[in-house]
Fold each of these.
Amino acid sequence: SPTVSMDELEHLAQNISKSHMETCQYLQEELQQSTWQTFLQDEVECYQSKPKEVMWQLCAVKITEAIQYVVEFAKRIDGFMELCQNDQIVLLKAGSLEVVFIRMCRAFDTQNNTVYFDGKYAGPEVFKVLGCDDLITSAYDFAKSMCSLHLSEDELALFSAFILLSSDRSWLQEKSKVEKLQQKTQLALQHMLQKHQRGEEILTKLICKVSTLRGLCSRHTETLSAFRAVYPDIVRAHFPPLYKELFG
Amino acid sequence: KHKILHQLLQNSTS
C-alpha cells in the first residue's frame, strides 16, 4: 500500500466529504422532514395502474437524475479528473448506479420500509408494475442493511468514493493509477472509522457490500435487457440518452 | 459513443 501521511488522508477525507455534500441531491434535513409523507393507497394504485412502459420510463428518468449528481461527485474527487478519460468513463459506467444504491440509504425510512421517490416516500408495492419484484426487494433490503450500519455522511461519502474508484473494473487503461487512488480512499475511510471509534467489523461489513452492489447492478442490466427485448421502441425513443449510454 | 458522459465530464463543475 502507498505511504500516505495523516495530513494527506485528512485532506482527502475532507475533499470527498465536501464533494458528497455538494452533490448529494437531497439534504438530510429535507429528507427527514418528508418522512411522514408516504404515498396514500389511491396514489399507490395510481402508480400500479400505469402502463408498464410509462413506469419504466419514469424510473429511468429518476435514476438518470440521481446519476448526474454522482457524475458531479466523481468530478470533484481529488485525482479523478487526472485519470485518462477512458478510465473516468469506465469507472462511471460501472460504478455510478452502485453509488446511487448506496445513496438510497440516505432517503430510506427503515420504520416503514419506504424510500423517497417522486416527491413522497414509497414502499416496494409502488413499483409492482415494473415486473421486477426481485430487484426491487433486493434494493430495499440493501438500503435497509446499509441503514443498520448507521454511517455518518462523511463515512458514506468515503465509501461511495471507494466504490467509484474500484480498480478491478474491466477495460481500465491505467489500472495502477486507479488502484493507488482507491487504496488512499480506503485508508482515509479506515482512518475516519477509527476516529469515530467505530469497530473494525464495520469496514469488513462494508467490503462485503461490494459484491452485493455488483449483484444489484447486474440484475438491473438483465431486467433492462428483458424489458428492451419487448419494448425496443420505447427505450429508443423515450429513455434518457445518458441512461442508454450507461446501460445500453 | 458516450457522448453525453464526455460532455458531463468536460463541463466545468459549478
Note: The interface with chain A takes residues 1-6, 8-9, 13 of chain B (CB under 8 Å).
Amino acid sequence: NSLTQVVHSAGRRFIVSPVPESRLRES
Amino acid sequence: AEDTGVRVELAEEDHGRKSSIALRLWVEDPKKLKGKPKDNGAIEFTFDLEKETPDDVAQEMIESGFFHESDVKIVAKSIRDRVALIQWRRERIWPIVQ
C-alpha cells in the first residue's frame, strides 16, 4: 500500500496511508 | 467522544510506559468539515502526552496542508478526545507508572 510522508518544519513526521475500506463510513 | 467526523485511534499498543504514543487520524465524514480535506488517507503521527497539546498537532496538520484552517478546532478536538481517553485509561490501568 502506498505511504506518503510529510515532515513538518517543527520536525513532526506525518505518515499517510490509505484508510482501510471498512473504516470509511458510507456517506 | 462526540462524533466530529474526524476519527483518531491508537496506532500502536499503549502499555502506559512511554510518554509519547503513535496515533492515527482520518476523516470519516468529510461533510462535517468546513474545508475540503487534502485526501482521505489515515495520517499517523507521534504525540507526546506530557509535552504537547492537541492544538499543536492540529496546527501542524493545517500547516502541512492536510486540513483547511477553518477546521483546526475540529481536528484539535478529535485529538483531545482520544488523548483524554488514553490518559484516563492509563490512570486506571497503570496508576503506579504515572
Note: The longest strand of chain B covers residues 20-27.
Amino acid sequence: VWQDRTIASAKLRLLEYSAFLETQRDRETYKHLFVHIGPSNPGYNDPVLESIDVRQIYDKFSEKKGGLKELYEKGPHNAFFLVKFWADLSSDIEEGSGVFYGVSSQYSGTENITISVSTKVCSFGKQVVEKVETEYAHMEGGKYVFRIHRSPMCEYMINFIHKLKHLPEKYMMNSVLENFTILQVVSNRETQETLLCIAFVFEVSTSEHGAQYHVYRLVND
Amino acid sequence: CAVEQVPMRKRQLPASFWEEPKLT
C-alpha cells in the first residue's frame, strides 16, 4: 500500500523530512519549518500518486555523471520521486547568532544495511554543493530505521534562504526558485544500489497553514 | 554561465503541480 501512495521503493520508505530554523527566546525554543513531510499512514482507499515523465525535469538536475538521467537509467524506477514543495518563508525569527538551521529526515527499510545519503543542490541544473551522510540501521518495531537528526544546513543554503526572504515580492522568490532544485539520493553504501531518489522543486507558500507539498512518481513511458 | 531552460510552465506537468494544497 505504501509503494504507490508514499515516497517508498521496494526497500526503503521516507518517514519524515523537515528543513527548519530554531532559536531560543526567553528559555523557550521556537522552531520554524521551511518545508515538512510528516508521517503518514495511507490505506488502500487513498489515491495513488500521480506521475511525471522524468524527461521533463532531467535538465533541472545535474546532467553530468551521477545526475538524474544516469541514475534513472540505472534504476530501479520504483525508487524515483519528485516532491513539489511550497516552502514557508514567513518566519519572523531574527537572523544571526543563536539561530540553528537544520535538516532532519527518517527512513525505514527491510534490511540491516548502511545507507549513504547524498543531497545535491543545483542552480540552473548545475550542482553547486553536495553533502554526503552515512547512517546505520536501528531495529525498531520489527523494521530497520535510519535517522538523520538535526543535520546542520550548509552556508550556501543559509545564505540562499536569507537572500530569498529579503526579496520584496513572492513572484520574485518564485522566479529564483524556478532555477533552484535539490536531488537527494539514498543508496546502499556497500552495493551502491539506489534505494530512494527524491527530486525536490520549490515555490513559496501563499497558505496560512505553512509549508505544503505534492508527491509524484517519476516515470518514463 | 547559465543555460537558458524551458520554463516549468511550458513543460508537460500535471495540473496539480501548480495547485498549492490547502492543508497537508
Note: The first strand of chain A starts at residue 12 and ends at 25.
Amino acid sequence: INADSVKDEL
Amino acid sequence: MNIFRFAGDMTHLASVLVLLLKIHTIKSCAGISLKTQELYALVFATRYLDLFTDYISLYNTLMKLIFLGSSFSIVWYIRYHKIVRRSYDKDQDTFRHYFLVLPCLLLALLINEKFTFREVMWTFSLYLEAVAILPQLVLLQRTRNIDNLTGQYVFLLGAYRALYILNWIYRYFTEPHYVHWITWISGLVQTLLYADFFYYYFQSWKNNVKLELPA
C-alpha cells in the first residue's frame, strides 16, 4: 500500500 | 499519521461511543435518527471493503472494526432492541435517505479516481458520508429540544471531519504529490453542512442555555 494514498485513512 | 488525523479519529471514536453509551445505558434513542445511523453503517461497509485484503496497521484495522461494529450495533439497537426501539420516533425521522444513496452512487460512478469496483465503492462512501448527517439534522430541527448527549454526538461527528481537513492540509504540505480532490471536496461539504449546527451549539454553550435550533 503506497502510504501516501488517502486509503491509509479511516 | 499526524496529530490532526489522530485527533480526528479519536473525536470520531468519541462520537460513536457517546451514542452507544447513551443508547446502552439509558436504553433510549430519543432524538436519534435511525436513517443517519443506517447511512453511516453503509458508509463504513462500503469504505472498509479492504479490511481483510490490505493490512495497513494494527491501529487502522482495529479502528475499522470498531467503527463497523459500533455503527451496525447502533442500528441493531434502534431497530430490534425491545426497549430502545420504543423510543425511536419514526414519525419524525422521515427523511427519505434513499434519495441520498442513489445520487451518491451515480456521482461515484461518474466522478472517481479509478473506475474499479473498490474505488467506486470507496468514492461512494465519501459522498454518502458527506450527506449522511442530513436526516439527523432534520430530526433535530423538528424535535427542537436536543438532549446534550445527542448534541455532543453531532458536535463530535462534525468536529472529526473538520480535524481531517487540517490533516489533509498538513499532508498536502508535507507529502509530495498528495492530492485527493474528491476526498477534500466531500470532506469540506460535510463540514459545511454542520456549520449552522456548530453555530447554534456554540451559542448555546456560550450563553449556557439549552441548545435550541431555529425551526
Note: The radius of gyration of chain B is 17 Å.
